[in-house]
Amino acid sequence: GAVVSQHPSRVICKSGTSVKIECRSLDFQATTMFWYRQFPKQSLMLMATSNEGSKATYEQGVEKDKFLINHASLTLSTLTVTSAHPEDSSFYICSARSGGKVNEQFFGPGTRLTVL
Amino acid sequence: KQEVTQIPAALSVPEGENLVLNCSFTDSAIYNLQWFRQDPGKGLTSLLLIQSSQREQTSGRLNASLDKSSGRSTLYIAASQPGDSATYLCAVRPNQAGTALIFGKGTTLSVSS
Which residues of chain B have a CB within 8 Å of the CB of A95? Predict the structure, then answer.
């Protein structure tokens, strides 16, 4: 299957700092990228959907000013957690979908964010 | 709004047993359904993807079925092994263009040797 990478895989930061997570589709062009969040022992919850060159669409309850998403190209999307707080500590997983025939959604390996 | 439910939430079996994991969804208007495996602290591994027009998919010891009209899917694991221990997630893709996969809460499987 197609490959999606995330960087960093793990980040620890102090409360109040901003953290940027990168998501790249390595071998295909992703017309749509999705960002999910997963708290311990919970399932993946969709945070936002972004299409290249357009503003992201956020799910209800997700603050767009806190979780900034930039889908600058067909292979790169970034999620910036601004002024992170301990309650933002979570596992963030990006996903990318091409516009091909199968149109499968491929997932990155995730980023573990810990805010002290 | 589409909701995905997985039963049971946890399952413990001895090695060698065949087992079935269940997934149900509330809206039958789906594009496809996918089963994933997630090891603790790790990302997702796609196991099987079933298009809405298909009834089942098989990969090795895994077989997934889909009954779209009743809103159900099952993941059958034959001859379970300790290495199968993980959380299994079911996800559906709604039929609307551009929508993301919606996940169930998963079934955590433990296979003892």
Answer: 100-101
